[in-house]
């Protein structure tokens, strides 16, 4: 079974609570951004990564707003489930933006990233990175993969969300950015079963085809 959850922010307790303890060797867990276990490279972080590497299930994550992209780039690029990833451990992969994974007969479009609202208060290369927002190459990579898939996937998994989703909820911000606009275009041009996103720290079904995810463990059935 494939499961998704929202931002974990380096909190190991999320992986020791009852919902996640039931995951088995054949399962896959995908974190929808702000994974948080590759931030400072310190001793405690390395210890946590080793613990996660011993989990029996496959653990995947997309990037969010708060990632150390310098650390992430140190890991080797690998092909994973028909997509592109960086391999952190044998069972732990950082999925690259625009990849379409093929797992258990399902196609999963993964696209991380988002704009930090407090970036003016952060220090570049210390707790903020320009790479939090996608590049033109990443958008083109996504477009190529969607074209090859006939613009049809089963699930779209992102950190941020289209403006249409946010407009229906209290999650809407005063300003939108071009990533929201890019997602708006996907919403209109891609056939999909469900879109799940994690940025807004809410567990909230928006409709039969959209859901905000935070602490819930959501199966992709």
Order of helices and strands: EHHEHEHEEEEEHEHHEEEE
**Category from helices, strands and their pairing:** alpha/beta
Spatial extent as radius of gyration = 16 Å
Q: For the largest beta sheet, what order do the strands appear in spatially?
A: 4-5-6-3-2-1-13
Q: Mean of residue pLDDT?
A: 94
Largest sheet: 7 strands, mixed
How much of the residues is beta strand, in percent?
25-35%
The DSSP helix count reads 7
Query: How many strands?
Result: 13
List segments where confidence is low: pLDDT < 50 over at least 5 consecutive residues. none
Describe the model:
With 221 residues, the chain is α/β, with parallel strands linked by helices. It is 24% helix and 26% strand. It has seven helices and 13 strands. The chain has helices spanning 13-16, 18-21, 43-53, 69-73, 136-148, 163-167, 178-189; strands at 2-5, 28-32, 58-62, 77-80, 83-89, 92-95, 99-103, 106-111, 155-158, 194-197, 204-207, 210-212, 218-219. It has a seven-stranded mixed beta sheet, with no helix packed on it. The chain has a six-stranded mixed beta sheet with strand order 7-8-9-10-12-11, covered by helices on one side. β7 and β8 form a beta hairpin. The longest helix is centred in the middle third of the chain and has 13 residues, at 136-148. The chain is globular and about 45 Å long.
């Amino acid at each position: 079974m494939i499961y998704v959850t929202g931002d974990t922010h380096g909190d190991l307790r999320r992986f020791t609570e009852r919902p996640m303890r039931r995951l088995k060797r054949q399962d896959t867990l995908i974190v929808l951004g702000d994974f948080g276990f590759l931030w400072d490279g310190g001793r405690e972080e390395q210890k946590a990564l080793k613990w996660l590497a011993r989990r029996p299930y496959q653990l995947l994550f997309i990037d969010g707003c708060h990632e150390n992209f310098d650390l992430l780039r140190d890991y080797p690029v690998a092909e994973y489930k028909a997509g592109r990833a960086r391999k952190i451990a044998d069972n732990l992969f950082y999925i690259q933006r625009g990849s379409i994974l093929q797992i258990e007969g399902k196609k999963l479009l993964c696209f991380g990233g988002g704009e930090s609202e407090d970036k003016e208060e952060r220090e570049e290369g210390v707790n903020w990175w320009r790479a939090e927002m996608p590049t033109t190459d990443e958008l083109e990579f996504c477009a190529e993969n969607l074209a090859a898939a006939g613009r049809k996937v089963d699930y779209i998994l992102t950190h941020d969300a289209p403006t249409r989703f946010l407009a229906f909820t209290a999650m809407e911000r005063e300003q939108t950015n071009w990533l929201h606009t890019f997602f708006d275009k996907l919403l209109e041009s891609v056939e999909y079963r469900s879109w799940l996103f994690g940025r807004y720290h809410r567990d909230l079904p928006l409709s039969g085809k959209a859901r905000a995810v935070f602490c819930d463990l959501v199966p992709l059935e």
